[in-house]
Amino acid sequence: MATTAAGASEIPNARTPESASAADGREVVFSVRHLWKVFGPKAERIPEDTSVAKLSVQELREQTGCVAAVRDVSFDVHKGEVFVVMGLSGSGKSTLVRCLTRLIEPTSGEVEMDGEDVCAMDRNALRELRRRRAAMVFQHFGLLPHRTVVDNVAYGLEIQGMGKAERREKANEMVDKVGLAGMEKRRPGQLSGGQQQRVGLARALAADPEVLLFDEPFSALDPLIRRDMQEEVVRLHREEGRTMVFITHDLAEALRIGDRIALMRDGEIVQLGTPEEIVGSPADDYVRDFVRDVPREQVLTVRRAMRPAEDGEADEGPALGPDTLISDAIEAVARSGGAARVVDGGRCLGIVDHACLLNVVARLDGAPHGEVAA
Ligand SMILES: Nc1ncnc2c1ncn2[C@@H]1O[C@H](COP(=O)(O)OP(=O)(O)OP(=O)(O)O)[C@@H](O)[C@H]1O
């Protein structure tokens, strides 16, 4: 697993290649195909009408009076991943994620959860889906002010019909899990904003949903508490491996917590990839501009920097795992004074030296394996 060097933890991006890799054999939780959500008059005709479906957002609005909040979007969310939906305000993030459980009704397209057609679910199945299978954690948690912390956490379980003793026990367990032990008897008004968010998180976790859907849950928090909560999410994810879909407009947040990121613009996904793919190989100028200020050495790994080993190099020098961040590799190379080997399972995959590491930092790396762009 990649680690950040001390003092260089602006965007820690610790994840294994397995958790970050795209599909290969991974179980799909949500499968979305050609999803559209159009607001406005006769919205349902827009996706089918090729003469208007390709118009820009502004042209579409002018010609039809409709807003296409989500336009022909397809993707899979894999079991156990943190899937981040990122984009500027108005790019369609909330609409897209609400369509997953039909909190917003899609205009057209397919949504499946665990192979089941969400668009065909009746009212009861939908209620079950939202309560137990894919629970949403909102920015404003809507805590009940007159109830204690533990009763707020138990509330969802009460609705599910769980008995008092059992739900108390479960709620206490969740309060502990999110770091609020000792505060069980307080009321929301006696908690800080960050602590209230933790109560909301504990309440969502208590229902033990297969997927947690977060809609910008931390955007109202001040930066330090926000950072705490991001770490909390990463910790919970590591401990439980629960699938999470997380909306944010904050790139640093997306890079910090996401296994994969779907970057949206005007209702479309312009790039879907790991943080390393998005930062290292932006799909177009829009994405390139979006990630321009990201400290690359804190996101990209030595896989991207390494070059083939020359005679004798494969047997000497410090060994680094292939997921070592460039920032850590810089430290290792600087300390050793020479090149380092990138080693996986005893096999030398390549070499990183001063030049190839600097190429990545200076954005002179056009492609993986240290081939310098022409
Ligand atoms: N009920 C609605 N009626 C009409 N247009 C809507 C409606 N809901 C959303 N929109 C429009 O759809 C587009 C996408 O909105 P959405 O809220 O999904 O974006 P977002 O990326 O989540 O934005 P934010 O980060 O500001 O929450 C916007 O242009 C918005 O104005």
Automatic annotation (TrEMBL):
- Could you state one GO biological process linked to this protein? glycine betaine transport
Which Gene Ontology terms of cellular component type are present? Answer: membrane
Q: Does the keyword Transcription regulation apply?
A: no
Q: Does the keyword ATP-binding apply?
A: yes
Q: Which Pfam families match?
A: ABC_tran (PF00005)
Q: Which PROSITE patterns match?
A: ABC_TRANSPORTER_1, ABC_TRANSPORTER_2
Q: Which residues belong to any copy of the ABC transporter domain?
A: 55-291
The molecular function GO annotations come to: ATP binding; ATP hydrolysis activity
What residue spans carry the region label Disordered?
1-23
Q: Which UniProt keywords apply?
A: ATP-binding, CBS domain, Nucleotide-binding, Transport
Into which family does the record put it? Answer: Belongs to the ABC transporter superfamily.
Q: What is this protein called?
A: Glycine/betaine ABC transporter ATP-binding protein
Tell me what organism the protein belongs to.
Answer: Streptomyces angustmyceticus
